[in-house]
Design goal:
With 276 residues, the protein is of the alpha+beta class. The protein has two domains: 21-86, Arc Repressor Mutant, subunit A (Orthogonal Bundle), CATH 1.10.10; 90-257, GAF domain (Beta-Lactamase, 2-Layer Sandwich), CATH 3.30.450.40. It has ten helices and eight strands. Strands 5-4-3-8-7-6 form a six-stranded antiparallel β-sheet, sandwiched between helices. It has a two-stranded antiparallel ribbon with strand order 1-2. Strand 7 (211-219) and strand 8 (225-234) form a beta hairpin. The protein is globular, with a radius of gyration of 21 Å.
């Protein structure tokens, strides 16, 4: 569910009575977001579109199991057990374990932010982030969602997505992101074509701080793009062309460890045959 500003009311999901009980229960969890990490019974029941008494029964089960925790003021937050279960997701945990050494190497280059993201529907989800305490300010957190059209990792994932995904994303209004230049659907198609051709995506942002993001694709065994890797750093001092090779190299190394086998060029094959 997309993040909502903290000042916005929780939008109703309208879980209908004809839905399976499990789906109605899970609709309560959909009320949480990056901006709304603690919610009251009333807020949760309204978000799920169910009576407070029904919501309270579900919330008690979630709390007993550990999916939710109830604070002293009566509000609910996501529980540690739910985090433990989510961390086992193979598209997050497996890729993260393989990528971590290369993320650490990239971190040593800038001591800023190194991000690893995968696609989930029409969003990118951040599955890992290494950051220095002195790094420039960014609005990204592990587990958070990033828009595909306006972030470097998002554009990598969108550029290598299916034509139907691109049509679906481009058919919807592209939300203006503070600190980035507005882009039309036509302009974005051109940007995505450049990303596919260059194998790298670069996005400049002025808020919450002036940064530049450089991202490259991570490939799986079948040459499909399974993740995007990026460095986010201050938009000054370090030039893009100085870090692009490092980001590309790290992404290729992760891809090989995931099982991707790059095609051998004719020149390399000739050298191998001449010098076995």
């Amino acid at each position: 569910m997309p993040d909502r500003p903290a000042t916005e009311p929780v939008q109703e999901i309208h879980a209908q009575h004809g839905q399976p009980v499990l789906m109605r229960a899970l609709s309560l969890l959909a009320g949480f977001s990056d901006k709304r990490r603690s919610l009251s019974l009333v807020e949760l029941s309204r978000a799920a579109g169910m009576p407070p008494a029904t919501a309270l029964r579900f919330l008690r089960h979630f709390t007993e199991w550990g999916a939710l925790e109830r604070l002293e003021d009566g509000r609910y937050v996501i529980g540690v057990r739910l985090w433990e279960i989510a961390s086992l997701a193979p598209r997050g945990h497996g890729i993260r374990d393989i990528a971590l050494p290369y993320l650490e190497d990239l971190y040593e280059i800038t001591h800023q932010h190194v991000l690893l993201a995968v696609r989930d529907g029409r969003d990118a989800v951040l599955i890992d982030r290494l950051s220095s305490k002195d790094a420039t300010e960014v609005a990204y957190r592990v587990g958070g969602r990033l828009p595909l059209p306006t972030t470097a990792v998002g554009r990598i994932l969108l550029a290598h997505g299916s034509p139907s995904l691109q049509d679906e994303v481009l058919a919807s209004p592209i939300d203006a992101v503070p600190g980035t230049a507005p882009v039309s659907a036509r302009e974005l198609r051109m940007v995505l074509a450049d990303v596919r051709r260059a194998g790298v995506s670069t996005v400049h942002r002025s808020l919450p701080s002036k940064t530049v993001s450089v991202a490259a694709p991570v490939l799986g065994p079948g040459a499909e793009v399974v993740a995007a890797l990026s460095i986010v750093m201050p938009d000054k001092g370090i030039l893009e062309h100085e870090v692009i090779p490092a980001v590309r190299t790290a992404a290729r190394a992760i891809s090989r460890d995931l099982g991707y086998q790059p095609a051998t060029s004719a020149a390399v094959r000739h050298l191998r045959e001449a010098h076995p």
